[in-house]
Amino acid sequence: MEDARSRPLPLHCHDIAPRVFPFFHNIIKDYGKISFTWLGPIPRVSLMEPKLMREILSKKFDQFTKPKSLTPLGKFIFQGLVGHEGEKWAKHRKIINPAFALENLKIMLPAFCISCAELIRKWDMMIPDEGYLELDVLPDIQNLTQDVISRTAFGSSYEEGRRIFQLLIEKLQLILPTSQSAYIPGFRLIRFLPTPFNKKISQVEKEMDRILKGIIEKRQKAMRMGESSKNDLLGVLLESNMKDGEESQGKSKNSGMTTEDVVEECKLFYLAGQETTSVLLTWTMILLGMYPNWQAKAREEILQVFGKNKPDMDGLSRLKIVTMILYEVLRLYPPASSLVREVRKTTEVGGIAYPAGVTFLLPILFIHHDTEFWGEDAKEFKPERFAEGISKASKVAGAFFPFGGGPRICIGQNFTLIEAKIGLSMILQHFSFELSASYIHAPCFDFTIQPQHGAQLRLGKL
Ligand code: HEM
Question: Its Enzyme Commission number (predicted)?
């Protein structure tokens, strides 16, 4: 991996798998599309077959779950909905679903636009009227997606939302170095010892929970007084939770989510939604910098639909070229590059019976780049392949998995696509850009697929 990371790729080369995952690339090359490795004591089968992958993703909870043997990083990330199983998952998913429904995201549109307008204002002040600005856009895009999630999740409590985000980053930075080390069974017991590291983590967690509980209790009180709070994710979530509690009163002791549950779900919105969306937008800008013809096509469409006005929901649904571009970026540079599942009881997949304890690696990136599923031009940037929708884009049906599949498919996919379309529309309405001479094409894995040396672009005003 170190060797792969030390060598950048030529510009326009999207054959990124050997650089991003050299180990798995070699395994698949040497042993085929269904092969296995040992992860310490755990057998891991990589399965590069869209049909079987869909089968696994749609299997019942008693057959497949998320893996139990998680590293500290995994445990941190797999909290809330993304880590629950069985009935608890079903209950949480039902309560949270309305928060991400299109009609509610529509109400949050002004919040998306305010955050994007701030970015536009910032770049507008930095870029000279005549001439260009060389800029690594990655930090600004990260800031944009943090701002969007703080505004859409917490609305009026936006400032506290930003603080929670800083604390999450602090915790992630504490945990990340420990996740780089090899997994040793029993090692995680160390997290119960009062070491300085554990004390620091616990301090950060306490502050985060205190702020979140404060926001939630204030909101619950306002709702009891009859105030509507439907204009942010937390408000819709609390209303849906209250409704669930009322509907199942007397029928089940286990109704609604507790405040602690809501706290975990709010943290997850940040973790699952921020980095993924920021890399999607960043790679989109890099690729539109590489392919000025697609940048021009996207701008033409955006100006046709919105002129210089703020994007609206109706217009967003009419952006065909922009959608094709975003899908092609999600195909070539999928932010979630693989999924993992663990077999709970002996289960047959593709004619082989796998015993309990086996884990499956479902390599989204490798499937998205395979010529067998996408044709000889699989590793080229060709948004036109999505011109007739997702189902017609691949040679083999159902080979596009950027948001997973089955019942656990990403709950935030509409949220992300709305955010990316608004962000891109507003950027292209105001600026043109190309790759800077200092840009180095070096995609690498850092939880998501990141540009290792940043996203240096040369921006000019329109
Ligand atoms: C480009 C952006 C995004 C990508 C590529 C992405 C990808 C994914 C994938 C692949 C899964 C399935 C994981 C699995 O089956 O193991 C997932 C689940 C999930 N995502 Fe996203 N996601 C994105 C944005 C978001 C956003 C914006 C949010 C929320 C604000 C979000 C919240 C979630 C949640 C809560 C789950 C768990 C769903 C469940 O287990 O029922 N995601 N996402």
Answer: 1.14.14.115
Task: Give residues (CB < 6 A) around ligand 1.
Answer: 81-82, 93, 268-269, 272-273, 276-277, 280, 335-336, 339, 402-404, 408, 410-412, 415-416
Q: State how far the Cα of 143 lies from the Cα of 247, in Å rounded to an integer.
A: 40
The model's pLDDT over 131-187, given as tens digits with 9 standing for 90+, comes to: 899 999 999 999 999 999 989 988 877 888 888 888 888 888 887 666 555 555 555
- What are the C-alpha distances in Å from 152 to residues 24, 110, 257, 275, 384? 38, 9, 21, 16, 32
Chain-wide mean pLDDT for the chain? 89
pLDDT at 193: 61
Structure tokens at 358: 């086996």
Mutate to test the pocket of ligand 1, among 410, 418, 421, 448 (most ligand atoms within 8 A of CB): 410
- In this predicted structure, the answer to whether residue 402 has a pLDDT above a threshold of 90 is yes
Which tokens hold the place of 13?
């080369």
Nearest CA to ligand 1 atom 26: 273
Give residue 253's pLDDT.
Answer: 56
CA of 270 to the centre of ligand 1 (A): 11
Token pair recorded at residue 389: 């929708």
Domain total in the chain: 1
Q: Which protein residue has the closest C-alpha to ligand 1 atom 18?
A: 410
CATH number for the domain spanning 166: value is 1.10.630.10
